[in-house]
Amino acid sequence: MIKVGDTLPAVTLTEYSEVEGNGCSIGPNPVEVASAAAGKTVAVFAVPGAFTPTCSAKHVPGYLENAEALKAAGVDEIWCLSVNDAFVMGAWARDQKAAGKIRFLADGSAEFAKATGLTLDLTGRGMGVRSNRYSMLVKDGKVATLNVEGPGKFEVSDGATMLAQAK
């Protein structure tokens, strides 16, 4: 499992873009993790699935509520990762009204989750291999803090905890 001091895995995620610009076309666009995190402080949080109850009602709203304070504390970007496709992540970002505040990045084949060792096997529930629920503060591509939730828990990966760690 990834740990504090480790470098983020060099995988490519996808992000749905609503508008064309800055070299991005409308629709799914590749996001190379290493280059996207280089020289930045990024608050990353991962969830088992888009549109799921805890993720939609608590996890994302907590980061939205703390977005301005996180930026004031030196966080350049907030990333939400989930093992879903870019179309689902784009729809979820619209539903959560997160434009300009949180980047919703799709880990469609669970490559990032597998590379970090933070997978959650929900095959028995018909959801396959997913990402565990966690958060991490990343500075210039290296993990500065890591908060991994226990099974079925939502206690340490919330926006308020991330804000306290970013200060």
TrEMBL record:
Protein name: Glutathione-dependent peroxiredoxin
Annotated SUPFAM superfamilies: Thioredoxin-like
Record bears the keyword Nuclease: no
Signal peptide: none
Presence of the UniProt keyword Oxidoreductase in the record: yes
A molecular-function term among this protein's GO annotations: peroxidase activity
Entry keywords, A to Z: Antioxidant, Oxidoreductase, Peroxidase, Redox-active center
Biological source species: Ottowia thiooxydans
Cited function: Thiol-specific peroxidase that catalyzes the reduction of hydrogen peroxide and organic hydroperoxides to water and alcohols, respectively. Plays a role in cell protection against oxidative stress by detoxifying peroxides.
All residue ranges annotated as the Thioredoxin domain in the record: 2-167
Reaction it catalyzes: a hydroperoxide + 2 glutathione = an alcohol + glutathione disulfide + H2O
Listed EC numbers: 1.11.1.27
Family, as annotated: Belongs to the peroxiredoxin family. Prx5 subfamily.
